[in-house]
Automatic annotation (TrEMBL):
The lineage of its organism: Eukaryota, Metazoa, Chordata, Craniata, Vertebrata. It comes from Nothobranchius korthausae. GO terms for molecular function: zinc ion binding. Keywords: Metal-binding, Nucleus, Zinc, Zinc-finger. The keyword Zinc-finger applies. InterPro entries: RNaseH-like_sf, ZnF_BED_domain_contain. GO terms for cellular component: nucleus. Its main location: nucleus. This is Chromosome undetermined SCAF9096, whole genome shotgun sequence, Uncharacterized protein. It is found in: Nucleus.
Amino acid sequence: CQRDESPCKNYHFTDKTRHPSLHQENGAREKKKSFCCVGHFDLLTANKTVKEMMAKKHAEELERVKREVQQAVAVSITADMWTSLNMEAYLALTCHYINDNMQLCTSVLGVKHFPQSHTADNLAQVKRGMMDDWAITNE
């Protein structure tokens, strides 16, 4: 549940009214690295770099939460199903548990498109697959 504090310091922030990577210095346009801080994430403005950094952060958080969920003595799983404006069904699974620091934690295990018939067997199969992805067993 705890996120690392990552203060945005020693970073060059850009004026949002100008192009984020072009600055005037001594009358010449010069490209510089530009940073912005969003929540706890320090992001470069380049799309490729942002994607790479977000993929890395996602993998780190996924592993951290997986460890916490697997170490939990017990978990409670809730499911929610809804239909989008385009009439497409989705199923979300959420896991609630108490971590080692005795904090109540909630993590979304996933959201899946659910085009099949909404039978108990189909729901159980998709839920079991999502729980298997997180190594959550019936023990």
